Amino acid sequence: MKQLLRFMKHYKKETVLAPLFKMLEASFELFVPLVMAAIVDQGIKNADIPYILKMGLVLVALALIGLATAATAQYFSARAAVGFAAELKHALFDHIQSMNYAETDKTGTSTLITRLTSDVNQVQSGVNLVLRLFLRSPIVVFGAMIMAFTIDVKAALIFVVTIPALSVVVFGIMLVSIPLYKKVQAALDKVLGITRENLSGVRVIRAFSREEEEVEMFAGYNVSLMDIQNFVGKISALMNPVTYIIVNVATIVLIYTGAVQVDEGILTQGEVIALVNYMSQILVELVKLANLIITVTKAVACGNRIQTVFEQPSGMKVYTEEEALAAARSVQADSVKSKDAKVVFEHTNLCYPGAGADSLIDIHVEIKKGETVGVIGGTGSGKSSLVQLIPRFYDATAGRVLVDGKDVKTYEPEVLRDKIGMVPQKAVLFRGTIRDNIRWGKEDASDEEIRAALQAAQALDFVEDKNGKLDFEVAQGGKNLSGGQKQRLTIARALVMQPEILILDDSASALDYATDAALRKSIKELDPEMTVFIVSQRTASVLHADKIIVLEDGEVAGIGTHKELLESCPVYKEIHDSQISKGGQE
Q1: How far apart, in whole angstroms, are the C-alpha atoms of residue 478 and residue 486?
Q2: pTM of the model
C-alpha cells in the first residue's frame, strides 16, 4: 500500500493544506466548551445579558470560521483523492496492457476488473477520509484531554483512563478486520468472475438449458460473499456500541465527580459543563475515527491487492540481443541460414504457465517474404499457440522467434505489432460505427482505404446494404451482426493497416467455401509481398498455400505443399480425406 502513495506526488500541496485546515477547524472547536463555561459562570449566573450576547456572537464566529476551514479542507482532500485515484487507474491500466497473455491468464480477468474499479474506489475513499480526519480526530481527542487538565486535574484523569481504553478497542478491531476484508474482496472476485462468465456465455447457457444450475452456482458464491461480509460486518459493528459504552460510563463518572467538586466549591457549574462537552467531543471524534479505521482497513486491504498487480513483472520486457539469445538457451546466434526469411521459428518450444507439458515442441521452420503459409492440425495441436508467438502474445520458453532476422523479444511491442495484422479466432468488435471499428487498424484511414479493406475482406456488399453504411452502429461485441459478418469486419480491420505479416487465426470458419476462396485471392492481390499465415482446420483453406505446416500434439508432423503432404504426411492426408465426400468437398 505504501508504494501506491507515489501517485500523490502531484498533489503535495493538497495533502498538506487539507489536514492543515482540518487542524484549524479542530482548534477552533476546542474553544467552544470554554466559551460555554464562561456564558454559564458569568453571563447566566450574573444575569449579564450583554455578556451572553457577546459570547453568543463569539460562538457564531467560531462556527463560521469552522465551516469555512472545513469546506476548504474538504475541497483539497477531495481534489487530492480523486486525482490520486485517476493517476492510479491510469498506471494500473497501463501495467495491465503491458502484461502478456500468460500473465493475464494467470491473474484472471475478473480479478483485474475488480482491482481496477472497486479496489481503486475503496483506496480513494480511504485517502479522502485520512486527509480529512486522520489528524483532526487525534487533535480533538488529545486536545480535549489537555483542555480538561487546564480545568481540573482530578477530573482530567478520567480522560487519561478513557482514551487508552478506546484506543485498544478501535485498533484491536482494526487488526482483526484487515485480513477479513481481504477475504471479502477475494469472494467479490469470484462473484464478478461467474457474473462475467454468465453474461458472456448467456446464449450457450440457454441453448443447453443450464439456467437453473448457473443460478444455483451464482447463489452459492453470493451466499459465501454475504456470509463473510456479515461476519466482518459484525466485528466492525462492535466498534460504535463499545466506544459509546466506554464514553458514556466515563461521562457518568465525570458528572458524579464534577457534582461532588461543585458541591465542595472546587469547580463551577460552567467548568463541569465544559468537561462534559469535551467528553462528548471525544465521543463524536472517536466514532468518526472508528468509521475512518473501517474505511482505512478496507483501503489498505484493497491497496495491497492493487500492489500485487504492480509487483507482477511485465512479460513485455524488451531484451537485448545477448539477453534474448541467453533466454533461447540451446539456440546459436548463427543458426539461421536464410537471410531473406521474414519469420523464423528456431527450435521453438512453448509451455503455458502451470501446464504439465510443452504445447509446442522444437518448431523449426522458415517463412520467406510474400509467402502464404497454412497452419493445420487437429484440435489442440498448437496452431493458435504457434502464430501467437509472432506478435509476442506469449513468449517462447525455449528457442526463438525471429521477424526480419531479429528476435521478437528485442522489438519494442509497438514496433513489432505495427508490422503484424492479427485476426484472432474470436471475432471481437467494439461498440461504435463500422468506420470506427475498422480504424482500430489505422487511426487516420480514409473512407477509400476502409472501402478497399472491406472489399478485400468480402465485406463491402453487406456494409453497403446497412442503414448508414460505414456509419452503421455496431453493438458491443458485434451482437447485431452475424458470425460471418463479424469475421469479415475483423479481417478488414487488419487489412486496412497494410501489415507486412497477416495472421488469420481460424478467422474464416464462419465463411462458406466460395467466400473463403475469394477472400484468400483478394488478400494476395492486395499486396503480393505480404506474408500471410492462415490457421485452419479445413484443408480447403490452405490448399493453395506456398507452404503448409502440419501440427500434431505440438510437434511438426510435416511441412510442404498440398500435393507433397498428401504423399508424405499421413496426418495431413487423414485430415484431408475426412473432409472429402464422394461428391467433392463438403
Answers
A1: 7
A2: 0.68
